[in-house]
Each structure stands twice: as structure tokens, then as C-alpha cells.
Amino acid sequence: MGRKKITVVGAGNVGATAAHWAAEKELGDVVLVDILEGMPQGKALDLMEARPVEGFDVSITGTNGYEETAGSDVVIITSGLPRKPGMSRDDLLQKNKEIVASVTKAVVKNSPDCIIIVVSNPLDTMSYVAKAVSGFPKNRVMGMAGVLDTARFKVFVAMELNVSVEDVQALVLGGHGDSMVPLPRYASVGGIPLTQLLSQDKIDQLVARTRKAGGEIVALLKTGSAFYSPSASAVQMAEAILKDKKRILPCCAYLEGEYGLKDIYFGVPVKLGSTGAEQVLEVSLTDEETKLVQESGAAVKESITSLNI
What we know:
With 309 residues, the chain is α/β, with parallel strands linked by helices. The protein has two domains: 5-143, 3-Layer(aba) Sandwich (Rossmann fold), CATH 3.40.50.720; 146-305, Lactate dehydrogenase/glycoside hydrolase, family 4, C-terminal (L-2-Hydroxyisocaproate Dehydrogenase, Chain A, domain 2, Alpha-Beta Complex). The protein is built from nine helices and 14 strands. Strand 12 and strand 13 form a beta hairpin.
């Protein structure tokens, strides 16, 4: 059987930290790829030298090519230019399209049976690019956004109520950006609906903060954007797939009519198992929630159309 193999493309903050989480969880051997010479090799060696301290027995390899990635089970794509303050996700569009397309080709050539998790921004659109270029079935290409957006909503709830994050459940639908749709009606703490624990005003504040959470970190850091939480979120998805956990996590998945949306990548609750995105779950929405989902869908669709794939 041997160990599972995880490739992380892009050895910047998100990629290197994803390699760290994956290795520490012993999900499999990790290959870190980047075009910068020496950078992935150095970070991989640094992680290897942390193994005796933390006690994880997997190998971490750094490379500038794709030969070492051959036969990967899961590939996490983080490559692309990061957002800078004042930059919209869509400013990144054309440049990152080229980067994600070339990476996807190289990945598919070496690991034709892998499952791809896209983290590059603008997330929904880049997931669409990866599917188009790879030719993979929809279950084997997905984007990481909902796990992160939901984690942000959950932590703001936990901070507000001073409770354990382990007992907070939440759901965020939609495109990864300001049009995302947190659903407080489906949020709960230890099984108690959130609407019974917080006033509508307070919930609205937390929803607004969740929508702008990425930008809040970009503004604080001044250079670069969030990386601990996005990388942890991508690895949570990888773990669900590699261990066939059948977890229900909000992911950016390809829709063919669900939620009234077609030929689009969009954040929805998904069952993640060994074959990837195994099922999209449809939840019932109020008229107001449906309107927000349609608006978010239209924004994502516009971004996808502008790519001319």
C-alpha cells in the first residue's frame, strides 16, 4: 500500500504552511513545488528537521519540477499572485488564470488520478480553470473557500459567546468574496440555534465581519494575506478525502443545477470522501437567502465568463 502522497504547489506562506499541517498530521508524504530555486528545498529540509521534535514520520521533499510529484493522491494548488491592499480578487484574474492553467497541466501529466484542491484566488474562477484544463470529472476538482469562510464565522461566534470553537456549527454558501452568504439560521452552538443565543443585530455584525475577514487580515499585515487558516482549511479537506471520512464541509464545487446554478464553481455543503466531492447537499433557503445566493452566483458567473475559456 505505501503511504499516501500529497503535493502542494506553491511554497509561499499558504503552501509551506499546508505542507506543515499535512506532515504533522501524518496524512502522507509531502512534495512542495515552487518555481523559485532552493526555496521549496529549503522549507522542506527545515520541516524534515522538525520531525524528531514533533515525531512525525513522513518525508517532505522540495522541488522546482513535477517529476517528484508523480502518483500524488491529492494536489493542493496555492500558486498565483497574492492580493495586495486595495486590490480586488478580480484584478488577479488573468494573471492567475495563466499560472493555474500551466500548473494544472503539469500536475495532471504526472498524477492523472489525483484529486485537486484549488486555493488560488479568485477561488471560484480558478477552480473552474483547473477543471477545464485538467479534463477531470467534477468530483475530482474542488476549491477551498467554504471551510475557511465557515471557520471565520465560527470563531467570531465563539469569541462573542466565549465558548469552545468545537461546539460551534455554521454554514457559509456562495462565492469566496464579499458576496458570500453566511446562513445564521443554520448555525448552532452545542445544538442550540444561534438565533436563540445572539440578537439579530449582533449576528448581522458577525456576518459582515465574516464577509470581510480576508480583507481585515490583508489590511493588518500590510504585505501578504492570511495563510494559517487557509492552509489549515485546505488540509482539513485533504484529510477528509485521504481518510475517506465522508465529512460534510462547505466547498467550492461544480454545480449542474443545484441551487438553481449551472456550469459554475460555487460554495455549497459537500460530502468529501475517497473519490473527492461525492455529493452536493441542497439546503432549503428562505426567499432572502435565495436572492443572496443568486446574486453571489451572478458575480462568480461574470468572473468565469470574463476568462473566455
